[in-house]
Design goal:
Layout (H helix, E strand, L loop, with lengths): L4 H19 L5 H6 L10 H21 L4 H46 L4 H11 L4 H8 L4 H5 L1
Length: about 150
Amino acid sequence: MIVDGWLLATACCAAGAVAAWCAGPPRGLLRSRLGEPGSRSPAAVPRLRRATLPTLAGVVVLLVWGSRFLVPAATLAVVAAFGMRLAAVHRTRDQAARRRREAVEACDGLAAELRAGQPAVRALSRVAAEHPFLAPAAQSAGLGGDVPGVLD
């Protein structure tokens, strides 16, 4: 089968649109590697790789079976991309809610330790034993470092 020029152009445009939509907002990969705030997390890069699978499948369907399957294949690609994006948003919200719960538990534990009369460094180290994300702050406090700077 000979592929028409418009079919190939449509397939490429659809593939690019789906891949761009699944990738999310553009942010710098270099900034994320440097750990700057507001940068794309390293876990966001495989998102683009996951988006290419349904996109490539749609392009193959268009190129092999022709224009008869243009609308169903495009619809399937959009639905698959939307489902993947929705699942990613749900996963991100769950992770954020879990981090918020952990932070509230850590604050409650730290407040309880301080109310019990423990020094701030000892209270932070005890809470860090239960909440590992506070370990760098506890180490910094033990060495007399900048705890708020570490927590940022």
